[in-house]
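Next up, sample data.

:::
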Amino acid sequence: MAATAQHRKLFVGIDVSKDTLDVHIHPQGESFRLARDGDGVEQLVQRLTELELAAIAVEATGGFEGMVVAALGAAGLPVVVVNPKQVHNYAKALGLNAKTDPLDASVIARFAEAVKPEIRPLPDEETVFLAELLARRRQIVQMITAEKNRAFRVATNTGLQKSIGRVIDALDRELARLDDDIDRTVKGSPLWRENEDLLASVPGIGKLIARTLLAEMPELGHITGKQAAALAGLAPWTRQSGQWRGKAFIGGGRAVCRSMLFLAAMVAVRHNPDLKAFSLRLLNAGKSKKTVLIAVARKLLTILNAILRDRTPWAPRIA
């Protein structure tokens, strides 16, 4: 009887494109296609709620998957976003090199069955909104940097300099408005304010970094240090074949969080006594500056995770 119940657990793979949703249900072998619009997503939710599911895996496709994941999560279905690179590597391992959307959906479903990715609660609407505000802020900062670089290249052309100056002024005003929106959003939530204060108690963590981590890694404080490092792409992995063992690398995970942690680590090695001592020990042991920065970023993330878990502000361990 238990085996029969287990057999009924199904894995669903969804390949999302700009206009369509290709769905495959494994192992029952059923495939279908829906439009990626309100009606299509509603039909998808209705169809999947009738099944006994182990997991619904949706491949990350640069944002097209957001509406689908949100709708499935809101319906209480076990949805998880999977890394497309891992799925494609899995397909190659199976000898599947064809590129068709129905095939992709089937591979995604089989990947979910093989890997069994952890189903985590989706961020709430406020957290998603904060993440979107911060993403827009990063875009504005990039545009300001690009315009300043253009100004440097056309330094002798007065007309172009004035045009670029007007664009930069407009972007600066928009950046200030976004900063106000972000500030109001955080201050409107007592929990966010408390979490921001806890994270910012660590030397090296400013408001922007704290808010980015809260928005982009809502799991922080509810997972282990190793899991946090993996989510941020700071967990080292090693290329190895037989007796040959290559160098360890980091990568994958949430690039925005990793970038912010590197910035924080660069400040922390100068102003955080614990992490400064930690970095000096590694440097004295012959580690490269890059390796030390990665180690400091990983240790910093572990500290931040523990602070949110224990609800205790940072305090130096070194007198």
In short: Confidence is low (pLDDT under 50) at residues 1-6, 238-250. The longest helix spans residues 158-187.
